[in-house]
Amino acid sequence: MPPLVLTADFAREFPELAVRAQAEAPPNPRLLILNEPLATQLGLDPQWLKSPEGIGLLTGTAVPDGATPVAQAYAGHQFGNYVPVLGDGRALLLGELTDGQSQFDLSLKGSGRTSFARGGDGLAVVGPMLREYVISEAMYALGIPTTRALAVTATGRDVQRETVLPGAVLARVAASHLRVGSFQLVAQQARATGDLTLLRRLADHAIDRHHPQAAEAENRYIALFAAVVEAQASLVARWMLVGFIHGVMNTDNTTISGETIDYGPCAFMEAYDPATVFSSIDHAGRYAFGNQPLVMQWNLARFAETLLPLFSDDEDKALTVAMEILEGFMPRYHGFWSDGMLAKFGLARSMEAAALIDQALMLLKNNAVDYTSFFRSLTKAAQGGAEGPLADNAFEEWLQRWRAQTPDAETMQRVNPVYIPRNHLVEQALTAAMRDDLAPVQKLLGVLAEPYRERDGLEDYAAPAPPEFGGYRTFCGT
Ligand code: AMP
Ligand code: MG
């Protein structure tokens, strides 16, 4: 049997939210990529994971004794519209494992239909699963809370999309898969029955697992809400600082842990513009780069609504408390963001620094400057190097004022990434992978694993996309 213990805590404690499900056996499984450092960190032997038994675990066909694979039930607002039952249509929670300190969910995506599949086929394809692997690992290396990718296994099954594509299963590790949508489902039941037991149990579980300090508070549920607001304010600020666009910030894709989850249509912005949208279905720009803080606050308002009955028996009082905490989101977000921005510019807090940041962002937008390489050029300029793309007239006066503040090059070097998963590079690597050449994906992963350390010979990985790579579009759930 696998040298691994998987608990079934969620499946056991929340039968109301967990439907037993079985992975579909892949006809011809082939491990495409394995995250060996992550495996080791979780106490999993990479060699074993590469064996037929290990691949059985990574595709859900061979699970250890005691594990109980389940599809999780949840609801959610998708593009603002409430869907009362969503749930894992193509995902499975295999169970929880521990690295000796924290507990993690081990789950699969693309492992076949579950009772939540509705019209879907329950499957996933190689390209998007490798894409999630690359981008989530890049986020991890950037120091941003995220689910992680353990492996992608090709199934050998054809999957019908617009064309026939090769199927794959992603094995994913998360602090948990609790999301705002989990609470929405339970709160909806609580409203219908007047019974708060399950809601309270789910909130206690979330506190235990993610925000244990909330248990010390006078009202632990109010403290839970405040903790999630804090975690998400910090998370979205981190996204904004690196130019990450999630693309599908539905409430079912908003975690209670504060991790980034669900890498579908996400992508990194190149030329700075808050209106940037990549997702092919986001016609109104609801999830545009610059909207992300506001959308997160909206999602947290939906979370607050689920917890109101636990805040106080007095409805008005509950609402007042919720509003107070919710109104704290933007100031908290802005605090995280401005701390991060000051570091990116190498500046200490001052009125002049704030003005410099505002003006720089305006210049970036008006001149369609690449966000990531701008900050690296600026870092070089702070180190006394050439100003490269900054030599532009548009920046001349701004640069003088910025220099007058004696920017701290060391801080800038530490916080401004050289390498992000640029869309054209990701696409190139995935195209090669579709021809069975995984080398470009591996190379890209190696580059992205150390985003802050500039290395000779990797200039192409730091450069923006060539102009002919315009109009990039991304897709959901493919
Ligand atoms: P997402 O936007 O990827 O978070 O997915 C939204 C919902 O659609 C979730 O309930 C998924 O489980 C479900 N879903 C997405 N793709 C499929 C598929 N191919 N088969 C079944 N369910 C799916
Ligand atoms: Mg989702």
From TrEMBL:
<keyword id="KW-0067">ATP-binding</keyword>
<feature type="binding site">
    <location>
        <position position="89"/>
    </location>
    <ligand>
        <name>ATP</name>
    </ligand>
</feature>
<feature type="binding site">
    <location>
        <position position="172"/>
    </location>
    <ligand>
        <name>ATP</name>
    </ligand>
</feature>
<feature type="binding site">
    <location>
        <position position="262"/>
    </location>
    <ligand>
        <name>Mg(2+)</name>
    </ligand>
</feature>
<feature type="binding site">
    <location>
        <position position="122"/>
    </location>
    <ligand>
        <name>ATP</name>
    </ligand>
</feature>
<dbReference type="Pfam" id="PF02696">
    <property type="entry name" value="SelO"/>
</dbReference>
<keyword id="KW-0479">Metal-binding</keyword>
<keyword id="KW-0548">Nucleotidyltransferase</keyword>
<feature type="binding site">
    <location>
        <position position="87"/>
    </location>
    <ligand>
        <name>ATP</name>
    </ligand>
</feature>
<keyword id="KW-0547">Nucleotide-binding</keyword>
<keyword id="KW-0808">Transferase</keyword>
<feature type="binding site">
    <location>
        <position position="262"/>
    </location>
    <ligand>
        <name>ATP</name>
    </ligand>
</feature>
<keyword id="KW-0460">Magnesium</keyword>
<feature type="binding site">
    <location>
        <position position="121"/>
    </location>
    <ligand>
        <name>ATP</name>
    </ligand>
</feature>
<comment type="similarity">
    <text>Belongs to the SELO family.</text>
</comment>
<feature type="active site" description="Proton acceptor">
    <location>
        <position position="252"/>
    </location>
</feature>
<dbReference type="InterPro" id="IPR003846">
    <property type="entry name" value="SelO"/>
</dbReference>
<feature type="binding site">
    <location>
        <position position="109"/>
    </location>
    <ligand>
        <name>ATP</name>
    </ligand>
</feature>
<keyword id="KW-0464">Manganese</keyword>
<comment type="function">
    <text>Nucleotidyltransferase involved in the post-translational modification of proteins. It can catalyze the addition of adenosine monophosphate (AMP) or uridine monophosphate (UMP) to a protein, resulting in modifications known as AMPylation and UMPylation.</text>
</comment>
<protein>
    <recommendedName>
        <fullName>Protein nucleotidyltransferase YdiU</fullName>
        <ecNumber>2.7.7.-</ecNumber>
        <ecNumber>2.7.7.108</ecNumber>
    </recommendedName>
</protein>
<feature type="binding site">
    <location>
        <position position="253"/>
    </location>
    <ligand>
        <name>Mg(2+)</name>
    </ligand>
</feature>
<feature type="binding site">
    <location>
        <position position="90"/>
    </location>
    <ligand>
        <name>ATP</name>
    </ligand>
</feature>
<feature type="binding site">
    <location>
        <position position="179"/>
    </location>
    <ligand>
        <name>ATP</name>
    </ligand>
</feature>
